[in-house]
Amino acid sequence: xxxxxxxxxxxxxxxxxxxxxxxxxxxxxxxxxxxxxxxxxxxxxxxxxxxxxxxxxxxxxxxxxxxxxxxxxxxxxxxxxxxxxxxxxxxxxxxxxxxxxxxxxxxxxxxxxxxxxxxxxxxxxxxxxxxxxxxxxxxxxxxxxxxxxxxxxxxxxxxxxxxxxxxxxxxxxxxxxxxxxxxxxxxxxxxxxxxxxxxxxxxxxxxxxxxxxxxxxxxxx
Length: 221
What we know:
By secondary structure, the protein is mainly alpha-helical. It has ten helices and no strands. Helix 5 (86-101) crosses helix 9 (185-200) and helix 6 (108-121) packs across helix 8 (159-179). The longest helix has 27 residues, at 123-149. The protein starts with 5 loop residues before the first helix and ends with a helix.
């Protein structure tokens, strides 16, 4: 039997993964069997097991894919010139969420929510998830620091705290889409600006806003 090229191997591995994603998106990790995944691939069981020894390996590869995608959102934003403004980044997040949930055969945002639960069940996956999310958050800290340097954030702002808040928004967007209502870019921007105002002047809403809050609200408009 001729040796498979690396490209062929990568193509087959990807086909197995996307077939598994269709099953996971439809029925969840726990309710999906390897037999169902194998049937979805149209390959023999021995061929599938050459690439993945079982469902846990498929789940791990799936989680890795999703986590790397989150990190790459911020890596791509950092590579852009000019730097995307805060409002632009919120738009990128909302648009990416919509695109990943509208694949014809699978919904990666549904799978992401399942991956969080799986990470709580399996310590090794939890550790890997934590490590990759922290890497993604550091990319976002680099981006918020650049915002401060370029005048989008006030000089006395805390770029790391800003990054933490933005990063924390992302799971909420997924949960909202599937369990409550989808959130639009405009609503997200208005909400962040309103919350900034409320935190700065929690008692009297008619007070003149401080320059810092005005700056924050302006970056989100």
